[in-house]
Amino acid sequence: MPPANQQPSTNPASNLDFFSIPQSFLLQIGTASILLLLITGKTTVRALEAIGEASEELLRGDRLPNLDFPEDHETNQT
């Protein structure tokens, strides 16, 4: 049987520094990161839509140059 006047250990069993950070600070960091992620996502969608519209305008048929194809009788003569 251990003695009754034994001093408790000064080192806690689980030394977690994570819990020493205030919860309000963790909440602020989490909120800011989520808002930044949402803003970045919205900006990315707008940029991709603009790129899509620009490529669509670039590849429209009326913007392409007219190609001169040789006539059938010109190719048969050679």
Explain this structure to me?
Helix content is 54%, strand content 0%. 0% of the residues are buried. It has 78 residues and is mainly α. The model has no long low-confidence stretch (mean pLDDT 79). The longest helix has 36 residues, at 23-58. The radius of gyration is 36 Å and the shape is rod-shaped. The chain has 2 helices and no strands.
Helix content: 40-55%
**Given the structure, what is the number of helices?**
2
Task: Give a short account of the largest sheet.
Answer: none
Helices and strands, in order, run as: HH
Please tell me how large the radius of gyration is: 36 Å
pLDDT < 50 runs, ≥5 residues: none
- Give the structural class: mainly alpha
Mean of the pLDDT scores? 79
* N- to C-terminal distance: 114 Å
Q: In total, how many beta strands?
A: 0
DSSP strand content: under 5%
How would the global form be characterised? Answer: rod-shaped
List keywords for this structure.
transmembrane, single chain, transmembrane helix, membrane, 78 residues, 2 helices, mainly alpha
Question: What secondary-structure arrangement, pairings included, does this model have?
Answer:
Elements: H1 23-58, H2 72-77
In summary, what is this structure?
By secondary structure, the chain is an all-alpha fold.
